[in-house]
């Protein structure tokens, strides 16, 4: 059993018959009245994000989770299939457990969060950024980089992202997996 003083980013708790992870938190001590903790919580089962305010000292049921390294193998009608890097056992995850799953490339290493007591996969965290090849985009315009104009580009996994207009087919890009934003063009 934990309290509001234990809340930090990534903290997992049982709340409203679901398991939530803390995305943001803020301890507030107003000049008048009691202190409280304002949080943004993400459900690890549905992906839904909620805002909730806990009074200071409120008791919370913490959930012990384990983060394990897995390698992405393939996707089929059963979901996404992964292999444990240590035991070589395979497991599959549903589409809803992986945020921005269309940026996942075969062979990529990911972190899968497991409920330690029940051995149930809760979510899958992609790396901070991925390198993907542009398979289709409109032809680029050389020298037109002064403005922040973007165009859609399809990458090798089938995802469509916004890129600057000087990007061409065959370019290797680094893409942020949280925001789906173009970061840079990678030299081959």
Notable characteristics:
OB fold (Dihydrolipoamide Acetyltransferase, E2P), 6-stranded antiparallel sheet, 3 domains, 188 residues, mainly beta, 5-stranded antiparallel sheet, SH3 type barrels
Mean pLDDT across the residues is: 89
Number of helices: 0
Main beta sheet: strand number and arrangement?
A: 6 strands, antiparallel
- Tell me which oligomeric state these chains represent: single chain
Query: How do the helices and strands follow one another from N- to C-terminus?
Result: EEEEEEEEEEEEEEEE
What general outline do the C-alpha atoms trace? Answer: flat
Runs in which pLDDT lies below 50 for 5 or more consecutive residues are: none
- With strands numbered from the N-terminus, the spatial order across the biggest sheet is 1-6-2-3-4-5
CATH class of the largest domain: Mainly Beta
**CATH level-two architecture of the largest domain:** Roll
Number of domains: 3
Question: What's the CATH topology label of the largest domain?
Answer: SH3 type barrels
Our Rg estimate from Cα atoms comes to 20 Å
Summarize the structure.
The protein is mostly beta strands.
Describe this structure in words.
The strands form three sheets. The protein has a six-stranded antiparallel beta sheet with strand order 1-6-2-3-4-5, with no helix packed on it. The protein has a five-stranded antiparallel beta sheet with strand order 9-8-7-10-11, with no helix packed on it. The chain is 0% helix and 54% strand. The protein is an all-beta fold. It folds into three domains: 2-62, Roll (SH3 type barrels), CATH 2.30.30.30; 65-125, OB fold (Dihydrolipoamide Acetyltransferase, E2P), CATH 2.40.50.140; 130-186, OB fold (Dihydrolipoamide Acetyltransferase, E2P), CATH 2.40.50. A hairpin with a 5-residue loop joins strand 15 and strand 16. It has strands at 2-3, 12-15, 18-28, 36-43, 49-55, 59-62, 65-76, 79-84, 90-93, 109-115, 120-125, 129-137, 150-155, 160-164, 172-176, 182-186.
């Amino acid at each position: 059993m934990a309290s509001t003083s234990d809340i930090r980013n990534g903290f997992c708790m049982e709340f409203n018959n679901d398991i939530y992870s803390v995305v943001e938190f803020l301890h507030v001590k107003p000049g008048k009245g009691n202190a409280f903790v304002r949080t943004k919580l993400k459900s690890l089962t549905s992906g839904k994000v909620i805002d909730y305010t806990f009074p200071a000292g409120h008791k919370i049921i913490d959930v012990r989770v384990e983060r394990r390294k897995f390698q992405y193998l393939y996707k089929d009608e059963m979901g996404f299939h992964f292999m444990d890097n240590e035991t070589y056992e395979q497991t599959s995850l549903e589409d809803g457990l992986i945020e921005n799953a269309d940026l996942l490339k075969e062979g990529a290493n990911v972190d899968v969060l497991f409920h330690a007591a029940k051995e149930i996969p809760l979510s899958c965290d992609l790396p901070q950024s991925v390198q993907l090849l542009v398979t289709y985009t409109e032809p680029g315009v050389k020298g037109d980089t002064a403005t922040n104009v973007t165009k859609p580009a399809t990458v090798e996994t089938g995802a469509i992202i916004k890129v600057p207009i000087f990007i061409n087919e065959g370019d290797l890009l680094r893409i942020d997996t949280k925001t789906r934003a173009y970061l840079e063009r990678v030299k081959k």
